[in-house]
Design a protein that fits this description.
210 residues, Rossmann fold, 9-stranded mixed β-sheet
Length: 210
């Protein structure tokens, strides 16, 4: 089984990613947490943890890691330090460790951050992190969802390199897309947007290269 490091494991989407990996026959999750007291919740689920702070050196978190899902975020508080520079640190460490794939949770609008007055700083940070990953030597998938909801997952999405429309999507479905991107060849070195839709997630991947 491949060891998958999840940055942002304590977040709402990160928690769902951990559960999906835990039930997978292909992957074993490693939850990256910032504080020691956050380890207990994962130990109770028999999930391994590693201590790592995105504002500090993270190279030690990559021992025996095969793939990475970056789902961390500062919640708008430290967008440059965490969402941008923290992501870059993880990408650098992944390159050095020769990680097989890096899956990035980004956001719709990250390609044109200046168009959003309210989220401009956040989207600019995401844009910089995405560009850094695209320019790296890593195999990657950059997933850009619409507005995240806590609704029940439908297992159906709309997917395109550029959707040209606004929309929302449940965290459950985003987590499904991120985990499936770990082994879905169609997502290799691809950046794409997703919102709630009518196409089964597995079928939707076929549309990426169109």
């Amino acid at each position: 089984m491949e060891q998958v490091l999840v940055a942002g494991a304590t977040g709402n989407t990160g928690h769902k990613i951990i559960q999906l990996l835990k039930s997978s026959q292909y992957f074993e999750p490693i939850a990256m947490v910032r504080k020691e007291e956050q380890q207990a919740q994962f130990r109770a689920q028999q999930v391994q943890t590693v201590l790592g702070d995105l504002e500090k050196d993270v190279s030690h978190t990559m021992k025996q890691i095969d793939k990475v899902i970056f789902a961390a975020g500062s919640g708008g508080k430290k967008v440059e330090a965490v969402d941008q520079e923290g992501a870059k640190k993880m990408i650098q460490a992944s390159e050095k460790a020769k990680v097989k794939k890096f899956v990035m949770l980004s956001s719709m609008g990250a390609d044109q951050p200046e168009q959003s007055e309210e989220l401009k700083d956040y989207l600019r940070a995401k844009h910089e992190a995405d560009a850094y990953l695209q320019a790296s030597q890593l195999n990657y998938s950059i997933v850009r969802p619409g507005r995240l909801t806590n609704d029940k997952g439908l297992g159906k999405i709309q997917l395109s390199k550029s959707l040209n429309t606004q929309g929302q999507i449940s965290r459950n479905d985003v987590a499904q897309v991120l985990v499936r991107s770990l082994h879905e060849a169609a997502t290799n070195k691809q950046t794409f947007e997703i919102i709630q839709g009518d196409t089964l997630i597995g079928e939707a991947f076929k549309d990426i290269k169109q």
